[in-house]
Specification:
Chain lengths: ~375, ~240
């Protein structure tokens, strides 16, 4: 382990030219929304600072975060960022295995105590003492707690680590639990998405490695630079929304013309992510561009919010039927109340007519309404 | 500042009779009532159309602004509703004691609960003659406290929280109401609750309009005209 190597030295060793290195710095600055004056700052930091090791753990997950990460479109990110971080410990990407791999984990933890970044993909299941996820013969829960103890900060990769995702969907038999509910004494950066966008992942890591601090986070602990706007706010189909032009059904005329997917359940208006700006696969496309609505994969509990093709979440979880939503429940209640009012009005009219008769026949004036 | 607690003595001092008209709803309260009625109507219609938009428009996107206009009307009416409600709270302090009924539920007072049961009996046809009231009857006060007093706050808070999503981080809407979104479990959940709030208020409106007309015909005091002129008149001189 070359503990004192700087990022720049690592890159040069990987065969990257100085020119490419500077291009990388300016691209990174642009990706992070920083001005050109930050380019020399990034270059300087990378030339002088010893690299920070990143330990990448895997709990209950599907590896889609790793798959996304290694496809970063950033021309150098996959070479540079991976060489900066992955060789320390990432059980799905590293060459070594078994005891060798675990030995590296312990070595880094000791050597860089309090100075390494822990990146978690997936989450720990808590039921049965964590026995639903075993890594190296021990529950992942134990490994997570052990590695987090001396980490500088924790990155929660993807919706699994950030929110729980599919394994935490109702009824959550293994009690899969997001990282921030298990590790409570470290700064945690949530990078939700199923998976998160590759450039968002490399952007977050690069920011932390170069500036030696965590990016500015929003109320839910997500980096503001990538999660402060909804998909809808920057969607290229937004003009069709404002104009009232919608896809009414898949494969209709509107769908062919690329109208807004709001009515077929697009979750863009309620989902915070950078898909509509950064896009996927080297900026090629993103779900809405491909003609399918956003499913809101970077939102907390998106599996439990009802159909991906409906605008309103279902109220299944609060005791109503599977098919119920706020408007159906509301309309039914308003119908019942309206009917009750009509019946009440009819009975009131009958009563009144009856008592009018009483007064007319000289009955007790006390019982009638003195009209 | 005026006391929030109007004593029974205040009310007892006013003697309802056929010849006396009591000035109950001051002009600002009446103005608020009708402004509020209008803004709720606009909010409910436009809000529903935001959730379930009109059939799609054909032609070029640049020639239409249907959703944009509907959303503008919703936001504008929302501001009218919110500003009106803040003014109404102010008026509860400086107005007469009837202006405070909307915000105070005197649950600690036995007479309130007795009155509420009594009024419920009148509505269940178990009683042939209701009591006379100068302000709201206890049942009406109960419904208004929850539907309009609490309901308005709920709709303003969730509404501005949703508005803050468009206004963006750092906006005053975000500073004041942005915390609601993670608290309720995300943007989708806040939308759902905002929808349910609309239905709750619509159900109140159905009952409110029906009860006001029914009271106007069948009770012992004026009702609909009182919210226009402010004067409460009575149909008999019997006590109670």
């Amino acid at each position: 382990m070359q503990g004192l190597e700087t990022f720049y030295e690592v890159m040069r060793r990987q065969g990257i030219t100085r020119r490419s290195f500077l291009k990388y710095c300016s691209l990174t600055a642009a990706a992070l929304g920083l001005g050109p004056e930050f380019v020399p700052q990034i270059a300087h930091a990378m030339e002088t600072k010893p690299r920070t090791p990143v330990l990448w753990l895997h709990g209950l997950e599907c590896t889609c975060c790793s798959e996304s990460f290694i496809r970063s479109a950033h021309p150098l990110a996959k070479d540079v960022v991976l060489s900066m971080i992955s060789l320390d410990y990432d059980d799905t990407l590293m060459a070594s295995a078994g005891h060798q791999a675990e030995a590296i984990l312990h070595e880094v933890m000791e050597k860089y105590k309090g100075n390494y970044i822990l990146a978690v993909e997936g989450n720990p299941p808590l039921n049965e003492d964590g026995m639903f996820c075993i890594v190296g013969g021990k529950p992942f829960l134990d490994q997570l707690r052990m590695v987090a103890k001396d980490a500088k900060a924790v990155i929660s990769w993807g919706s699994c680590a950030s929110h729980g995702c599919v394994q935490a969907a109702r009824p959550n038999p293994t009690r899969a639990t997001p990282v921030h509910e298990v590790i409570t004494d470290k700064p945690i950066i949530k990078v939700p998405g199923c998976p998160p966008i590759a450039e968002v992942m490399t952007g977050v890591i690069t920011y932390m490695l170069t500036f030696d601090r965590i990016p500015e986070l929003d109320r839910q602990g997500r980096p503001k630079m990538f999660y402060s706007q909804r998909i809808h706010d920057k969607c290229y189909r937004r003009p069709h929304f404002d104009a009232g032009q919608f896809v009414e059904a898949f494969d209709d005329e509107g769908a062919r013309k690329g109208y807004c997917l709001y009515k077929v359940g697009c979750k863009g208006p309620t989902t915070y992510n950078a898909c509509s700006t950064v896009r996927w696969n080297e900026g090629t496309s993103f779900p809405i561009q491909a003609g399918h609505g956003c499913i809101g994969c970077s939102e907390d509990g998106f599996w439990d919010k009802g159909s991906w093709y409906a605008r309103l979440s279902d109220l299944h979880g609060v005791g109503f039927g599977v098919e119920s939503n706020a408007d159906r429940v509301g309309l039914a209640a308003a119908g019942v109340v309206g009917g009750a009012v009509a019946v009440h009005a009819a009975v009131s009219a009958l009563k009144r007519a009856q008592h009018k008769g009483d007064i007319g026949s000289g009955g007790s004036s006390h019982t009638g309404d003195a009209a | 500042m005026a006391s929030l607690d109007h004593t029974p003595a205040d009310i007892a001092a006013e003697k309802p009779s056929r010849v006396t008209a009591v000035y109950v709803y001051e002009a600002p309260v009446r103005l608020w009532h009708w402004t509020n009625a209008l803004s709720i109507t606009v909010l409910a219609v436009t809000g529903y159309l935001i959730g379930s938009p009109l059939p799609t428009m054909s032609g070029e996107a640049s020639t239409h602004y249907v959703m944009g206009t509907i959303r503008f009307l919703h936001f504008a009416a929302g501001y009218v509703f919110a500003v009106g409600f803040i003014f109404r709270i102010y008026w509860a302090f400086v107005g007469n004691h009837h202006a405070r009924q909307l915000f105070v539920l005197p649950f600690w007072r036995r007479s309130f609960w007795n009155g509420l049961i009594d009024e419920a009996k009148w509505y269940l046809f178990l009683k042939n003659r209701p009591k006379k009231y100068i302000g709201h009857n206890p049942l009406a006060q109960f419904a208004m406290f929850f539907a309009i007093g609490i309901g308005s706050v709920f709709m303003i808070v969730t509404g501005f929280a949703l508005y803050s999503e468009g206004a963006g981080p750092g906006s005053w809407q975000d500073h004041l109401f942005g915390w609601v979104i993670p608290l309720m479990g995300g943007s989708m959940a806040v939308h759902t609750w905002h929808h349910l709030g609309m239905w709750a208020i619509l159900i109140f409106v159905i009952i409110h309009v029906y009860a006001a007309i029914r009271e106007d015909i069948m009770s012992r005091q004026s009702m609909v005209s009182t919210m226009i002129s402010g004067m409460r008149t009575f149909k008999d001189d019997d006590p109670d």
